[in-house]
């Protein structure tokens, strides 16, 4: 049986879990992807050895172990500039000539540390290693994140950061062998020769086996006959949690904000002010709005099974939504802000909408008018049928099983075509 090796640089969940606290958002995605790459390799009759270079977690966590056929080595420290040197040392020791690099802006702690990231890529490239770069966010304009980072739109600071970010992504893509993004519209943020180095592989959807019924989940949460709308994930300005609590008007709707503070921003006073505004809105809602705080992995099903509808009121589109993929896992209907209309540029998304005869007006709402409440009124009158059918189709189209096969073929097929 032929043997291949793959070295992976990423944030990675604690042993025995897929989702969890202490890592960044890419951790669960990466673990799901690697498990399905292994499955695809086995189906292809290839012996594949995967080694993960991950961040150090709490002292009681093992620094080196094998789980589900994947070797995990926790060798770098978030927030430490020395992490890049540690990673490079390990790359030199490993025999793998293919490296999968899953990247998130806060993965290495303070974004200022990213100054050293292109240097790491250059040193690895010099050693003739093929890096497959997977940026989980593509930031094209800091103005779209002004409220998230507390900068005034079109200020000198924003203009300067836009130049740096553009350079960062362009240099990173040039220094790596291939880049993978999750949606067609994210690829289109680049121009020229860079496009030849970018492949679209959509964000995967987990296959879950529900333990709870919707009725059991609602009973545990004390929910009776209310129509339940769910926002899931960290509380963030760009995700629109504050907009949602201010603009959902139907008193017969129960809104659950299933998420808590993002640990990357807890040192920022403006972020605490943001959190307080959401908490105060919930307290003034007479029980119609609930903020749960961080949701542990064992309770993710509880909230998704209890919900009638999942909502993504995002202010900007810079990545494929993890919460949306989880919603697809449970077959839950989803509605999205019109900032996420670029999803339609990816063929599978548009095809699934067309297959169930779902119009833009039935799934997308504007943040600048009352279209959210119009959609909700329409749903309560006509039901969730088409939205539910759309989610089930997307669940199959984007199953991690298929995504793992796509990654395996792309990384280990040297005759690549786009």
From TrEMBL:
Molecular-function GO term, any one: glycosyltransferase activity
Keyword Transferase: yes
Domain of life: Bacteria
SUPFAM superfamilies xrefs: UDP-Glycosyltransferase/glycogen phosphorylase
Keyword Transferase listed: yes
GO biological process: lipopolysaccharide biosynthetic process
Keyword tags: Transferase
InterPro entries from the UniProt entry: Glyco_trans_1
Domain Glycosyl transferase family as annotated: residue spans: 216-339
Name used for this protein in its record: Glycosyl transferase family 1 domain-containing protein
Species this chain originates from: Candidatus Gottesmanbacteria bacterium RIFCSPHIGHO2_02_FULL_39_14
């Amino acid at each position: 049986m032929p043997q291949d090796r793959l070295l992976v640089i990423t944030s990675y969940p604690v042993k025995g879990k897929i989702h969890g606290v202490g890592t960044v958002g890419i951790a669960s995605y990466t673990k799901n992807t690697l498990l399905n790459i292994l499955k695809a390799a086995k189906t292809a009759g290839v012996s594949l050895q995967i080694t993960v270079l991950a961040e150090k977690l709490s002292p009681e966590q093992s620094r080196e172990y094998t789980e589900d056929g994947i070797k995990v080595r926790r060798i770098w420290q978030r927030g430490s500039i020395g992490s890049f040197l540690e990673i490079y040392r390990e790359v030199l020791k490993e025999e793998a000539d293919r490296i999968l690099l899953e990247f998130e802006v806060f993965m290495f702690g303070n974004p200022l540390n990213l100054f050293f990231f292109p240097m790491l890529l250059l040193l690895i490239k010099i050693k003739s290693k093929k890096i497959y770069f997977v940026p989980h966010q593509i930031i094209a304009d800091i103005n779209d994140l002004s409220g998230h980072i507390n900068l005034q739109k079109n200020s000198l600071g924003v203009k300067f950061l836009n130049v740096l970010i553009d350079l960062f992504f362009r240099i990173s893509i040039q220094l790596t062998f291939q880049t993978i993004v999750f949606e067609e519209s994210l690829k289109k943020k680049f121009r020229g020769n860079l496009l030849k180095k970018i492949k679209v592989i959509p964000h995967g959807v987990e296959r879950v086996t529900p333990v709870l019924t919707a009725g059991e989940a609602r009973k545990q949460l004390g929910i009776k006959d209310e129509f339940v709308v769910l926002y899931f994930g960290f509380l963030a300005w760009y995700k629109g949690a504050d907009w949602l609590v201010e603009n959902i008007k139907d008193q017969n709707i129960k809104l659950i904000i299933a998420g808590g503070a993002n640990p990357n921003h807890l040192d920022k006073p403006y972020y605490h002010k943001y959190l307080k505004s959401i908490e105060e809105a919930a307290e003034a809602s007479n029980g119609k709005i609930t903020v749960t705080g961080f949701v542990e992995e064992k309770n993710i099903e509880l909230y998704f099974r209890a919900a009638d509808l999942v909502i993504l009121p995002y202010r900007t589109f810079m990545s494929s939504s993890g919460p949306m993929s989880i919603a697809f896992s449970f077959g839950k209907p989803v509605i999205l802000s019109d900032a996420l209309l670029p999803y339609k540029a990816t063929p599978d998304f548009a095809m699934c909408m067309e297959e169930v005869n779902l119009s833009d007006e039935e799934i997308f709402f504007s943040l600048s008018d009352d279209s959210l409440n119009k959609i909700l009124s329409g749903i309560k009158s006509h039901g969730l049928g088409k939205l539910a059918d759309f989610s089930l189709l997307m669940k199959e189209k984007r199953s991690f099983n298929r995504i793992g096969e796509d990654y395996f073929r792309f990384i280990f097929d040297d005759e690549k075509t786009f």
